[in-house]
Amino acid sequence: MAKSIPFTNTECERPNSEQTMGNIQLCGRNQDGSNQDESSSKSDDALLDVSDARGSPQPMPRPLHSASTIENARYSVNQSPRPDHANDDRHFVINEGSRLRVFAVFDGHDGSKASEFVCEYMKQFFEKQFLSEVESGRSTIDNILENAFLKTEYAFFKSIEAFIEEKQTIQATITGGLSSYEAYMLFPTKVSRLQELEPKISGGTTAVVAVILGDTVHVANTGDARVVLVQKFSDGSLVTTQLSVDHTVENEDELIRLQALGLDPEDLKKTGRLGSQENTRCIGDYGIKQGYKDVETISQADQPPGIAIPSITDHKITKTDTYLLLMSDGVYKSIENIQDPSSTASDAMNYLVEKLQIAEKKTPSNFADVASILLDDLKETHEKTYQNHANIDPRSPLAVQCRKRDDMTLIVYCFAHT
Could you give the C-alpha distances from 65 to 35, 346, 368, 413, 417, in angstroms and in order? Predict the structure, then answer.
């Protein structure tokens, strides 16, 4: 059994309410290094010399980063947008100019309980334990990252263990084979209590973490939050490469994994979901883990179909590396919504990088504002796209695509050598 890392109240960032492109100026210099509540930046005139890195922790200068988050919204014709729910995204940044940089985004579902817990727990792990585990030499960095994800999930489920045990105890006293109506008529008090327990047990979160250590970027993720690397080459072209893996039923490798457990991949593709969620991997989510037998569409699986094992990618830093972008799915899906249906994922990333350059030009003296400027622009464009098309025909494809927008969180890291 995994050993739980002691959990204390360490602070996480909480919300308030391969294609080329043209030559664009990259990563402004002489930033003032100021901090903001939702967007923070550290800067230094020194350059990152990756040629001296040997894979072990090395002192690094302070390059630039920016982070921001925006709450979800639902639109109606000629009415102000309103949120469907409180912002469930969380994120943290460890970028203090020492040997370690860590960036992380967590996109919660069924509330922020899981994303809040996981964000704070992982931040504490990276601040207090990660480097000592690396330096001990007892395990590879990839194994340390995987174990961090699994230990975090174990700790999360321990935090709601009493509610899970109570649910299982009540279920064991209700006669099997009853419909929901029959169960309520025969055991109204017990069924009511089960309904009260559900929000205390449900909930999970995607997790994407990028660790910069020595000359390598280590990326670990579960779910569909993304890490995208932007590189600039000698001809001025920009290329985007996704370093994370989308764990959804559109991922053929995930379908193969789920089919081996006894699930029908065609049924999964039709619904686009595993149980009630779009993600096939996450931290938490009792319904696709211990409680999967209670979910009709996945109950035939031989074992829990949802897992917290992350996909891990290692990237050696080069002089072409310009930006590292971490984002919740609300960012790239909002871009996809406002684009022509024939647009590709690469088109969406190109759009994002173009907007990033524009945002950077708007705030040449403070890189910390870049993420918030970019998300504000995307928020405004998304709403305008809906209103412009819905006023003509509310059933038009773009009006339907843009009728609502998810929470958006974005972290932008600028490599110091650019």
Answer: 10, 23, 6, 4, 14
Give the pLDDT means over successive 10-residue stretches in the chain (418 positions).
36 54 35 36 36 45 80 92 96 83 97 97 96 95 98 98 95 84 92 94 96 95 98 92 97 98 96 94 96 94 98 97 97 94 85 93 87 96 95 92 96 80
The whole-angstrom separation of Cα 198 and Cα 31 is 48
What's the count of helices (H) and strands (E) in the chain, helices before strands?
Answer: 12, 14
Q: What single-letter DSSP state applies at residue 292?
A: G
Dihedral of alpha carbons 376, 369, 69, 339, sign: positive
Cβ 306 vs Cβ 140: under 8 Å: no
Q: How far is CA 259 from CA 119, 263, 265, 305, 320, in A?
A: 31, 5, 6, 10, 40
Q: Alpha helix locations (H) across 202-328?
A: 252-260, 265-271
Cα(2)–Cα(147) distance, integer angstroms: 9
